[in-house]
Automatic annotation (TrEMBL):
It comes from Pedobacter insulae. Its main location: membrane. It comes from the Bacteria. This is Cytochrome bd-I ubiquinol oxidase subunit 2 apoprotein. One of its GO terms (cellular component) is cytochrome complex.
């Protein structure tokens, strides 16, 4: 049952990044859109994510529940040492969702609409930024579990070059995913071309910031190069991500958009495999060289079995209906 729990944890993280990340990316795309085109972008975005945006946060909830129940040591450590970026990220999720609803469904259209727009746009940037910072922090080896002062214990563990670079990389990936997804939602050729340009811009940004991540890793002593290029799985994932990138650019330049979503999702998945596989099952790395492993920190057998069966049975009930929800709302309007 340990394998089932860990598989669900990895799957929930991946799906939240692919689906929730694309939702955040829609706000990022709007941030980098000129004022004259923002209304068109907004309209396309509402059709794409409006009906299902809330469902995507299910994967974040599942991730938190799994960590809380099955890996309490990991949950506690993150809650203590990363409570500042976690709080900012969660405030961003709430602010973004609230602004999304009010700017679209508010009965009174007044100057507050502009306030809602700004909250939505900037929280769409801040939330994945701190999501990436948290992800970078747990593997950076900068968390000091023996710190004696506030800054060392609760700030420098996440406020470092590597974690911030990973945060910016996450923002670029979310924007890239959103642009790719929005291409397929565009009914007007001019809008489709505009989103293709956004996808190209975000992809170039992701590549450049990805290079910055390696530089920051070198500065902060994170063995990222070793994880990526000295591990067979990591190297294979890099090669596959690179090949998919070449194919994706070819299809973008040719204007062929049918398989772009699959390619973008595959590319991001390979990037996550590249970063995470080499140090698996270690989930958190500390400054003193110690780690917290998924296998070593797992809850008692009875707890794991109960959670495992709950996840298996719950997935049989939830996943078919979730798939049907996406199917219905992705049908083109007649």
């Amino acid at each position: 049952m340990d394998f089932v729990i860990i598989s669900f944890l990895c799957l929930a993280i991946l799906l939240y990044f692919l689906l929730g990340g694309a939702d955040f990316g829609a706000g990022i795309i709007e941030l980098f859109t000129s004022s004259k085109n923002r209304s068109k972008t907004r309209s396309t975005m509402y059709h794409a994510i409006g009906p299902v945006w809330e469902a995507n946060h299910m994967w974040l909830i599942i991730t938190i529940v799994i960590l809380f129940v099955a890996f309490p040591k990991i949950y506690t450590t993150m809650s203590v040492y990363l409570h500042i970026p976690l709080a900012i990220m969660l405030v961003g999720v709430i602010a973004r969702g609230t602004a999304f609803v009010f700017r679209h469904y508010d009965a009174v259209k007044d100057q507050m609409q502009e306030v809602y727009n700004k909250i939505f746009i900037y929280s769409s940037f801040i939330t994945p930024l701190f999501l990436g910072i948290i992800a970078g922090s747990v593997i950076s080896g900068q968390i000091d579990n023996q710190a004696n002062d506030f800054l060392s214990a609760y700030v420098f563990g996440w406020f470092n070059w590597f974690s911030i670079a990973v945060g910016l990389f996450t923002v670029a990936l979310c924007g890239f995913l959103a642009a790719i997804y929005l291409i397929g939602e565009s009914k007007v050729e001019a809008d489709k071309k505009r989103f293709i340009k956004k996808a190209e811009f975000m992809n170039v940004a992701a590549v450049l910031i990805g290079m910055l991540v390696f530089v920051a890793a070198q500065v902060d002593g994170v063995p990222l190069t070793s994880w990526v290029f000295k591990d067979a799985i990591g190297l294979s994932a890099v090669c596959l991500a690179s090949l998919s990138l070449i194919l994706l650019w070819y299809l973008l330049l040719k204007g062929k958009t049918k398989v772009l979503r699959i390619l973008a999702g595959f590319q991001v998945t390979m990037i996550l495999v590249t970063i995470s596989y080499a140090h698996f099952p270690n989930f958190i790395r500390f400054k003193n060289g110690t780690t917290i492993s998924l296998y070593e920190s797992i809850a008692p057998v009875k707890t794991v079995e109960s959670l495992g069966w709950a996840l298996l049975l719950g997935s049989l009930l939830i996943l078919p209906f979730l798939g049907y929800l996406f199917y219905k709302f992705q049908q083109k309007e007649e």
